[in-house]
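Lesson 9: reading folded outputs for more than one chain in a single document. The general rule is that every protein is listed as its sequence immediately followed by its structure tokens, and records are never interleaved. Here is the first one.
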Amino acid sequence: MVDLVTPSHVADYLLAESRDRGEVLTNLKLQKLLYYAQAWHLALYKKPLFDEDFQAWVHGPVLPSQYRRFSRNEWRPITEQVDRPHFDDADIEKFLNEVIDVFGTETAVSLELMTHRERPWLEARGGIPMDESSQARIDKAVMREYYGSL
């Protein structure tokens, strides 16, 4: 059982649940599902799902630890077998399933385009050109306020 939620726990859950639903995720799509899980947890529960901050990369929000973890897959589907974590708080699994229900049906590219039109990524990027790399941090308070207002 998991009592302290980490990005790896959430990534493993998203990968396992998506696989059970018949979809194998790429790193790009995993990053966007992680982002929307964090964003909507902040909006709905007023607290982060996990501590690590997202960065405003060219292709949208990225959680560096999980990007590095699966970077060897590049653009290909993540095929590593991961164990599905079981959270002490059953509401977390229910919440993550809802994130997959809503955002899992979108393609990785459509999720990327969505994040590019939303204030948290845009603010973090500031004046950085769209095609220039950046490690600018996406502020959790901005995420909470923006998604909470939707």
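And here is the second record, again sequence then tokens.
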Amino acid sequence: MRILVVTAAFALAGTLAVDLESSAAPAPPQADLLPPSLRAEPKPRSETVDVAFVRDGTLVRVERPLPKGAQPALHALRELAEGPTRAEREKGLRTAIRPGLKPRFVRPAGGVLLVRLSRTLLAPATPETMRARLAQIAATLTWLGRAERYAAVSVEGRLVTTLRLGARVAAEPLLPGEGGYAYSVRGVQARLWSIGFLDRTDVSGSLDYATEQALIAFQGWEGLARTGTVTGETQVALFRATTPKPATRRPGRRVEIHRDRGVLLTVDGGKVLRAVHTSTGAGGATPAGEYRVYRKELLSWSVPFEVWMPYASYFLGGIAMHEYSIVPSYPASHGCVRMPARDAERVYRFVELGTPVHVF
């Protein structure tokens, strides 16, 4: 039996669901989160699940029975897709979700819930209506009390957005993707951040230079065409992706440079902290091997090529990792490892004299 249990005064207006902070960052302001009464802590399996409907612009928490053996998250979304009962509609409950939405699966992966839905999620809607849909999904997943803080939402396996569970969702127009699979720019950026390809400060909602470079790095790592744009195959790969794994597991800090993929990894204690787009030496001018940083210069002058190289960290003769204005998606340098602005500075701050550099 379907039972209305709690009416939650939760305005659909608010900040984006991807107010992303690193694990070391301070907690976001309380205003960015759901009220304490609506947040759920991890709890033992219950015989019911809660789903989110809407009444007069607020989310309403409604209880549904959980059949024995059913997966709570998937069942909750299926109940959400069913919409309010006739009795609940008579009490003013509504839903922004179009009839016919089919939740395909919900499963955890790398601290994120992967949510695959049918194309009905992308049925024509105003930004406000789409926000309401995503807010209903986010609240329903939040009330399950799972440990995951983020949900990657896809339509038929193509990433649409990334929701921060327990945070308000704001209206954001979706951009048209290949084959009609729309996506949120901020949601794509949030996914890139969650797997180490973008800094949290670059989650801006704009398809800017930092996002383009992050997409090229991700596409190179995944073996996709390096376009720097959100292609269909990129949406698929983003949905299922995890943080890159280093080639070797060793203690301490080190840098891995994967020439064929055009990606530099900063690694600490066997964990990848960042994946950065790079362009190494044309024709194998950056030799494979194990090296160490032996010199660092904030602004280094290349005598043979008469060019300034900001944030240069030398690891083999005159070969350094450094910032450069042009970082193409193929090996193009005379041997150095080019990196985009800001990423080069982060790598420079990461390495010290003696930091191992492994070129593959």
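What the second record shows: The chain has two domains: 3-184, 253-359.
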